[in-house]
Design goal:
Number of helices: 16
Order of helices and strands: HEHHEHEEHHHHHHEHHHEHHEEEEEEEH
CATH class of the largest domain: Alpha Beta
Bound molecules: guanosine-5'-triphosphate, magnesium ion
Strand order of the largest sheet: 2-3-4-1-5-6-7
Helix content: 25-40%
CATH architecture of the largest domain: 3-Layer(aba) Sandwich
Oligomer: single chain
Number of domains: 3
Shape: globular
Radius of gyration: 24 Å
């Protein structure tokens, strides 16, 4: 694969970075990227983080706040006019609207928010009133887009061969069958017909979506915009698909192959490169959210796939040695946090195990990032804690469980929930040794009605993730909300604490 530094317009990249540096000197600024695959919890995380900075709460591990040095934080207009604003107020309102509370809508495109934090410097604290100010720009973008980076180093024939080969392996083969059936009848050298391209793109996209769905939860599925089209849905740059061709195979002029290759190139030029240049290459810090529990529930194939996707995502953090981009990056992203989200689905005794599983899942990715000089941590957290803890008694043994209200329509085994009744779930112990997950994942959960004693196992081998409703929170003094969380303060400390000293 060619170094991506060679593939960019270096002059424009430098210009953007110099502009950032210049404003950083006048006004200390930190650009924090928040990413993760679809539904990993980006929107909820940013909403909770911004709310904590604006309104405080229980944040003992966020030192500047815990020591009373945070003076005030407020939102300001963001610097990039062409990027949608992160709809903070709307998302917070969704989470806090009493009986109508609900999780924020899925977002699926890039968004940005600027928050200005004033603080007392730790060295001066207590001696003088002079303080510092940090401008924090938060950028929310789909992790799927990072999976596109390897495409910059593959031509159309190479990408096709690789993607088709992958779709013939393991659980993917069955999901890809309808697309494969079409593929077998497509002649790459035949004249280009638009309807063939459209049909191939539609079936290929349907295969990606099937692989991604909750049950299979596969993760490594580029091109990223096929899953997360943003504003590009239906555009020609997305109307292509792999053909069953060999690496190095040349396209006959005017053929289906030639048309597909042209669109693939347009996708890389017009979509992938601008994203890396205008957004990714300008980040200082990064948090990668991972819904590890969903993959655990879906089974070993999903876990292996998630691990691959995380390693691919992190390719982006380690550009080819010696490229101009690598020098810029080496100075830039200096901290990366991997966070297993929704830790409130397991009892607190299991938070450390979840963290260990995440560490194992990201170990390949972490090796690469550390190589690039970044400080990397892994943490299990819940940006908004939707459950509380309790114990249930089963066979005279008390078991730690989580108690919450499953969303309406959620099912667990034969049970369906109405969105009102609280239940206790014994999620099962996460394995102590993460390695075992890569061999065989055991059934993770059993459900029991709240307050009922001996838990009858209610699992018919069809366990899925139960989504809980957001917690019911009442406003604190001043009308602000303190959302319950797990270890959000730790994440804050790692991501920005050192810049508020
Ligand atoms: N229990 C619990 N559920 C959460 C938490 N964070 C997210 N969720 C659940 O995960 C879903 C997705 O969260 P989002 O924050 O919208 O995820 P996202 O990554 O922004 O998703 P897209 O915008 O669709 O890519 C929510 O609707 C909730 O059901 C959490 O801290 N605790
Ligand atoms: Mg979102």
């Amino acid at each position: 694969m060619a170094g991506i530094g060679d593939l960019f317009d270096d002059a424009r990249l430098i210009a953007a970075n110099i502009a950032d540096y210049a404003s950083d000197i006048v006004e200390p600024t930190l650009r924090l990227g928040v990413t993760g695959l679809a539904r990993s919890g980006k929107t909820v995380f940013i909403t909770a983080l911004v709310n904590a900075l604006l309104s405080g709460g229980r944040l003992p591990l966020f030192e500047p706040y815990a020591s009373g040095r945070l003076a005030r934080a407020h939102l300001e207009p963001q610097p990039d006019d062409a990027v949608p604003r992160f709809a903070y107020e709307e998302h917070l309102a969704a989470l806090t609207s009493g009986n109508d509370r609900h999780w924020p809508e899925s977002t699926r495109r890039i968004a940005e928010l600027r928050i200005v934090i004033r603080y007392e410097s730790a060295s001066l604290f207590g001696r003088t009133l002079s303080g510092g100010q940090l401008t924090l720009d938060i950028v929310d973008y789909p992790g799927e887009w990072l999976l596109d980076l390897p495409l910059l180093g593959l031509d159309y024939a190479e990408w096709s061969a690789r993607t088709v080969a992958m779709s013939r392996e393991g659980p993917r083969a069955e999901l890809a069958a309808p697309w494969h059936a079409l593929l077998a009848g497509l002649d790459a050298a035949a004249p280009a017909i638009e309807s063939d391209a459209r049909e191939a793109a539609a079936r290929f996209t349907a295969y990606l979506a099937a692989a991604r769905d909750e049950r299979h939860a596969l993760s490594a599925l580029p091109p990223g915009r096929f899953m997360m089209p943003g504003d590009l849905e239906g555009s020609p740059a997305l109307t292509f698909a792999p053909l069953d061709i060999q690496p190095g195979q040349r396209a006959v002029s005017g053929s289906l192959h030639a048309m597909m290759a042209r669109r693939y190139d347009a996708y890389r030029e017009k979509i992938v490169k601008p994203f890396f240049r205008d957004h990714f290459a300008r980040l200082d810090r990064q948090i990668v959210l991972v819904d590890a529990l969903q993959a655990l529930n879906a089974g070993p194939a999903a876990i292996a796939d998630l691990e691959t996707a995380l390693a691919e995502i992190l390719v982006a953090f380690r550009p080819g040695a010696n490229s101009l981009l690598s020098r810029i990056f080496a100075r830039r992203i200096d901290r990366i946090l991997f966070a297993a989200t929704k830790a409130d689905h397991v009892a607190s005794a299991d938070h450390d195990r979840l963290q260990a599983i995440l560490r194992r899942l990201t170990s390949r990715a972490i090796e690469r990032a550390e190589f690039a000089g970044a400080e990397v941590e892994a943490a299990a957290l819940a940006a908004v804690r939707a459950t509380r803890e309790g114990t249930v008694v089963k066979d005279n043994e008390s078991l730690p469980c989580v108690i919450g209200i499953p969303e309406q329509g959620q099912r667990l085994g034969r049970k369906a929930f109405n969105g009102e009744k609280e239940i206790a779930i014994f999620p099962g112990d996460l394995p102590e040794n993460p390695e075992s997950l890569f061999q065989q994942v055991e059934s993770l959960s059993e459900a029991v009605e709240s307050n009922s004693h001996p838990a009858e196992p209610d699992i018919d081998g069809d366990y899925r993730y139960v989504r809980f409703r957001p917690p019911l929170v009442t406003p604190a003094q001043g009308g602000v909300y303190h959302l319950p969380h797990i270890r959000l303060d730790r994440a804050l400390q790692f991501l920005i604490g050192d810049r508020l000293r």
